[in-house]
Design brief:
alpha+beta, four-stranded antiparallel β-sheet, globular
Length: about 100
């Protein structure tokens, strides 16, 4: 049996797959328009582009993707995107995918 440790990820031994990313609505808009953010596939979170530029190129190509690349990776799964407003008025977006591997 192969074991993989990934921080911030909930995994089961089932064949289903789930991801969840929560960010501000502003960050999500910038991500979907190809500005300022990339998706970190290892941590299931958005990363400012300026923080990614300092990372090894080999790791970069496997780990960080644009919104368009992420949608291609998730094309065989069900995608969800939900908008929320907190009690303090902050607008958030929860998005991710689910399905069977």
């Amino acid at each position: 049996m192969k074991y993989t440790l990934r921080l911030g990820v909930f995994e089961t031994n089932s064949s289903s797959v789930h991801t969840l990313c929560i960010c501000t609505a502003g960050d999500f808009r910038e991500f979907t328009h190809g500005e300022e953010f990339l998706y970190d596939r290892y941590k299931d979170q958005l990363i400012p582009t300026k923080n990614v530029e300092q990372i090894d190129r080999i790791e970069y190509e496997d780990r960080y993707v644009t919104y368009e690349e992420l949608m291609q990776l998730w094309e065989d799964f069900d995608y969800y995107e939900e908008n929320y407003t907190t009690r303090n008025g902050e607008e958030l977006v929860a998005f991710g995918m689910y399905g069977h591997d």
